[in-house]
Amino acid sequence: MDSINLSKTEEPELEHIISEKGNYIQNRKSNSINTKNISNSVIHGVEGAIDINSPISNGEIIIDSSSVKQNGNVLGVIQPHTLLPQPEPPAGVLAVGELNRSKSMPESFDMPAIGNFFREKSNSLSSAITKRLSLMRDQFDDDDEKVMKLESNVTEFNLSGMKVIVNLKEQGNKKLGRVSFFSRSNCRDCTAVRSFLRKENLNYVEINVDVYPQREKELIERTGSANVPQIFLNEKLLGGLVALNSLRNSGMLEKKLTEMLAGKCPEDAPVPPVYGFDDDDDEMSDEMVEIVRVLRQKLPIQDRIMRMKIVKNCFAGGELVEVLIHHLDCGRKKAVEIGKNLVRRHFIHHVFGENEFEDGKHFYRFLEHEPFIPKCYNFRGSTNDNEPKDAAVLGQMLGQIMFALLESYASDDRHHLDYIGISNSEEFRRYTNLVQDLHRVNILTLSADEKLAFFLNLHNAMAIHAVIRVGHTGGMLDRRAFLSEFQYIVGGYSYSLSGLKDGILRSNRRAPFSLMRPFPSGDRRLEMAYLKVNPLIHFGLCNATRSSPAVRFFTPQSVESELRYAAREYFQRDDAMQVDLAKRTVYLNRIIKWYSADFGQEKEILKWITGYLDATKAGLLTHLMGDGGPVNVVYSSFDWSLNA
């Protein structure tokens, strides 16, 4: 742009002062502005500024760089002359002061502003969703008849940024009453009734008389017998499984349910079980309890040194004899007999388990002072001093409670358990109370089948308890603590999961990847161990993993047949056994490899397995083994994840 010569500009008599609004105001003063040096100035139209190269002589008011200064203070900005051409920005470029900023992003990017921004957007989105849902609900209320005519009861509509699906529940006759039925554990008819009620989505209350023994009296009073199942609609008896099937086949069941459950459940209907209340047991204290209480108070229990070892919380046999003589006013021989009786009842034990009881300097300790006690999860501060229950009866009670747990909190195939539901259940609470009766139970009184069922059930119950209390770890090596540190007191001695499986059921054989046997020589627990291993036990034991057999519990009357059934069921799974004729390969679970000492050599294993396969797999394996060619055995990976 060409420069403009201002040399002929007249000197003003008034001084121009810039107001706050940027306008010129004239004041009459004697001073004047010397403009003789402004001739060399250049007015830049684009920048809107006046460039003046030389200062004004008077020095009072200086025009410099588009501003007016007086004594160094800026008074205002000189605007370009209105007659000058206005600058225009290049095409596609916004003019100065017209920068296009995002309307959704604040100019300040400090954290509070960002938080407020997202909070406002979230609130607006929530308000939009709520408003839209409210409108849709009103629309559904107005058009109820139209909605019922739709083939699907699912209405779909879109909101900004998301998709919402509303499922409309079928409007039927609301049943105010209650369905109740009495049952027993491991009852086939009860299982059928339970499955039907679940399939029909009927809310029901189950009263298992094996879990709640005192409710059996109520069952007899209401029905005249102890037979189960017995179904009640409110206070009225419907009958058992036969009556239920009869109504289903006749098509009258729905009408019957609607009629009998239309009213509110009366007070004389069967009451649902209440959590946290135990039945009144007529348990008797052990006849030796009074003597034991005296001994606990008067014996000098302290740490001693024996065989260069520090033995904690013990007393000498002679000290016990002296206390008994003075307290009972009896002879020494009788006091020794009482000491032996205390050992047989597992109130006291020799510190090294070497003898029953002898008078003298042999050291003994009470059961609650044994070093394994902190690891025992069925111990709650003190031993159970009640008269020990019969081992067979106790084993049956434990099995019934665990059957009830599976029926309520396991999948139909029993491969998955609801551990959270189990931990919060009344059945599990009663189980944890019942296992305290194991402290001094006499297992030697069990028959062979009773003992087998007892230890199988105890192992599977302990595995569930261990998952709930200490959690689940994966991998064979990682689970060694899980298998050995979680223990119960049973018959005066500690048993871990490994002790039950490898020590008792596997005849004290080493566990996989272990260098030592579960029980050392001379251990009293070896009296319980089987002399010969039954390979079928591996299909009845569940270690709470997905690749292990399904969790189950056994009855003493048919434990052998139930184990054979468990083996057949296990080998039907693809992760347990497969045959590939093309590759001449048999795929087996790693359980077979880890416990090959129990099954035998590979050829023997394949022959043994054939007897537990279904017709298809048995035919393929027989054909593969009978043609004289080589057979490859591959062991599939083991899934250590929790069976939940």
From TrEMBL:
Which PROSITE patterns does the UniProt record give? DEP, GLUTAREDOXIN_2
The record's listing under InterPro entries reads: DEP_dom, DUF547, Glutaredoxin, Thioredoxin-like_sf, WH-like_DNA-bd_sf, WH_DNA-bd_sf
Instruction: Give the highest taxon in the source lineage.
Output: Eukaryota
Task: Describe the location of the DEP domain by residue ranges.
Answer: 295-368
Q: Which Gene3D superfamilies match?
A: Glutaredoxin, Winged helix-like DNA-binding domain superfamily/Winged helix DNA-binding domain
Q: Give one GO biological process term.
A: intracellular signal transduction
| Secretion signal span | none
**PANTHER family of this UniProt entry?**
ELECTRON CARRIER/ PROTEIN DISULFIDE OXIDOREDUCTASE (PTHR46361), F26K24.21 PROTEIN (PTHR46361:SF1)
- By what name is this protein known? DEP domain-containing protein
What is the scientific name of the source organism? Anisodus tanguticus
